[in-house]
Design brief:
There is one protein chain. About 55% of the residues lie in helices and about 10% in strands. The protein has helices at about 40-50, 85-105, 120-125, 150-165, 170-185, 200-210, 215-225, 235-255, 260-265, 280-295, 305-310, 315-330, 335-360, 360-370, 380-390, 395-410, 425-435, 440-460, 470-475, 495-510, 515-530, 535-550, 570-580, 585-595, 600-610, 625-650; strands spanning about 5-10, 25-30, 65-75, 80-85, 110-115, 185-195, 480, 565-570. A 6-stranded mixed β-sheet has the order 1-6-3-4-2-5.
């Protein structure tokens, strides 16, 4: 949107009839918009929000904020409503009902005209017609549900919903009067006025196609750059200021839009769903602004404001902050908007630079990345905590704090005791306690440890300085894979049995030291094609023996299945694509796919390369010695790295 567009907030009261504007503002809804469609639940939610809004009489800095009302001035039609007509029409209905019920008079509000259906104006006006009982003087409300037209239905239904909501309160007159005052005096629209020769229908199309996103971030951008802010400054100064901020904004947004940067910062949770990524900075800044203001200006923070203004809260805080900043600059005799904006933008850049520092410092990148990759940590509150840690510590201390945070989030036994000490014994005991099961909590614990092992392994590789690809990790869904197969997941039908043996046969036939009687048993099944259900018991017995052999055990019962020494991370596509194969088949398929079809984590590749095994006499087996070496390496890697700086800092202090 052009920076010449006007943006701010406008009280509902400014829309209403007064001495200088007897009919109130005139709004025109073009025919390219749909009719009125708010449902009962939406009307009730608005009334509930207004009821919960804790306003303070006389303090108009506390207000309930409605989403943007996008308008364009027209000499003949008044204000063309480009976006926001549903909310505007609902306010008309709510105020009409309250005035009629409480004050027995037709409300003097504003004018709503609809190009698509001109009678909608009359339907709205008719809601406010007051007819009194000649005996009691009470209002006879003749509004009934009009089902002859879809727009008439929703208009009358909204009115009856308001009426019932008020009647169901403990004192509809008191509550109604309070709601009326809250709307008129303490409710504001975000007022977005389109200037220039652009056609309103083009703006409407762009908004609804997502080309113009009226998000908190875009609203803040328009707020900062609107021309009306620059009082007494030359056109050259204004243009230079706007271009400087706009260019910086675009560069920041482009960097934050990079998949590798964004997934590192936000993972894959709801926290990352915002379209304009600059909004991440503003979400965190809003909390910082409140903290810095409430000491001197307690009224700056409004209780429940964030809950009531879910979609516009960040904008509200920034709008308020600009007002307070202007007040302070004027009081100091140093007010010039371009200077104030430059000072304010410096704070924005400091947050952006913090994110860049996190990403570019390889150790910070890995430590923060492993923390933010956990589902339970992907929230605004957790992110704020990391920002506080960064700003409150030196570089060395920050690394230590991140490591301590990683340790504290592992559920070590007795971790809450004063004498708890992180070391090899507690890590070994914890890893030994992990058992793969179908329970999500157990799987999450194992996945977090395996991810930590992978990330630390990357960090400690200083020869080529590789970085763990958190973006690739977040794009894929992950399984905890058994390194050697699980007998309970054997093939279940003729096709699966045949495919499994076809792929395993080359390794069975190779010189792996398999007993001759077992090889003869396999050859019989293979040549006779004993894959049908009637041969399943014989096939399963052979399968169990093969699995036991490739796990280095004499029988399947001795084979550990669910310990972490037999588990690794593998994406679902690769894992479920090769089925429950023996170790050498898995090894071959994983090495073929590595870096081509899927992201295969470093430690998973190392496992199938037998990188952790101290002696490698046979590449086709994954036996108890391999499992022990893998387990020991995992323990040593985690302990040595996480304990290192913590001890160093203790010694320095």
């Amino acid at each position: 949107m052009s920076v010449s567009n006007s943006m701010g907030t406008k009280k509902v009261e400014e829309l209403l009839a007064n001495k200088s504007m007897p009919q109130g503002m005139q709004f025109f809804v073009p025919n390219y918009q749909r009719g009125y469609r708010w449902k009962e639940s939406q009307v009730q939610q608005l009334l509930n929000d207004l009821s919960e809004f804790d306003y303070e009489k006389g303090n108009e800095s506390r207000f309930y904020c409605l989403q943007p009302l996008v308008v364009k001035k027209d000499k003949e039609k008044g204000w063309i409503v480009i976006d926001g007509q549903q909310r505007l029409t609902t306010l008309f209905i709510v105020l009409t009902c309250i005035e009629k019920m409480l004050y027995k008079e037709k409300a003097k509000l504003f004018v709503m005209n609809y190009q698509n259906k001109t009678q909608m104006h009359d339907w709205l006006e008719s809601l406010g017609i007051v007819k009194l009982d000649p005996n009691s003087g009470d209002v006879i409300d003749e509004v009934a549900l009009n089902e002859e037209d879809i727009d008439a239905y929703h208009i009358t239904n909204a009115y009856l919903t308001v009426k019932k909501w008020l009647e169901d309160t403990y004192d509809y007159k008191a509550i109604g009067a309070e709601i009326r005052e809250k709307i008129r005096t303490y409710t504001r629209f975000i007022w977005y006025e389109i200037n220039g020769d652009v056609k309103p229908e083009i703006i409407f199309t762009n908004i609804n196609m997502g080309k113009i996103k009226l998000t908190n971030a875009e609203l803040i951008k328009a707020l900062l750059l609107k021309k009306d802010n620059y009082k007494g400054e030359s056109e050259k100064e204004i243009t230079a200021s706007q271009i400087k901020i706009s260019t910086a904004w675009d560069n920041m947004e482009a960097t934050l839009q990079r998949e590798d940067m964004w997934r590192f910062l936000t993972g894959s949770g709801k926290f990352s769903s915002i379209d304009t990524h600059m909004e991440l900075i503003f979400q965190i800044m809003a909390k910082e602004i409140i903290k810095s203001r409430v000491g001197k200006y307690p009224e700056f923070y409004v209780e429940n404001e964030e809950q009531l203004n879910r979609e516009t809260y960040t904008f509200i805080i920034f709008n308020r902050e600009m007002e307070y900043m202007k007040r302070e600059y004027v009081a100091a005799g140093d007010y010039k908007y371009s200077k104030m904006l430059e000072d304010f933008w410096g704070k924005v850049e400091s947050f952006y630079n913090m994110f860049i520092d996190w990403y570019e410092d390889r150790e910070w990148y890995h430590l923060i990345g492993v923390l933010l990759s956990k589902d339970e940590n992907q929230s605004e509150e957790y992110f704020e905590n990391l920002c506080d840690l960064y700003r409150g510590h030196t570089k060395t201390e920050f690394v230590m704090e991140l490591k301590k945070k990683i340790i504290s989030e592992i559920e070590f036994e007795d971790a809450d005791k004063d004498d708890f000490e992180f070391g090899e014994e507690v890590v070994r005991e914890y890893l030994n306690s992990l058992q793969y099961s179908g329970k999500k909590a157990e799987k999450d614990k194992i996945r977090n440890i395996l991810l930590l092992f992978n990330v630390i392994s990357m960090q400690q590789n200083t020869d080529s300085n590789p970085r763990f690809p958190f973006d690739a990790y977040q794009r894929q869904k992950w399984d905890i894979e058994h390194i050697h197969s699980v007998t309970t997941d054997r093939a279940q039908n003729k096709k699966e049995r045949e495919e499994w043996l076809e792929e395993a046969k080359p390794y069975i036939d190779s010189d792996v030291g398999m007993p001759e009687d077992l090889k003869a048993e396999i050859d019989n099944i293979y040549t006779q094609k004993l894959y049908g259900d009637e041969s399943a018991p014989q096939y399963d017995e052979m399968y169990n023996k093969v699995i036991a052999f490739f796990s280095g055990e004499s029988s399947v019962e001795e084979k550990p299945i669910n310990e972490i020494s037999n588990l690794t991370l593998l994406d679902q596509r690769t894992n479920r694509g090769y089925g429950n194969h023996i170790f050498p088949v898995k090894r071959n398929k994983i090495l073929e796919k590595s870096g081509i079809e899927s992201f295969i984590p470093l430690c998973t590749k190392n496992v199938f390369l037998k990188f952790y095994s101290k002696t490698v006499s046979q590449m086709y087996l994954w036996d108890k010695h391999d499992r022990q070496d893998y387990f020991d390496k995992m323990v040593q890697t985690i302990v040595n790295y996480l304990a290192e700086d913590i001890e160093d800092v203790k010694e320095e202090s």
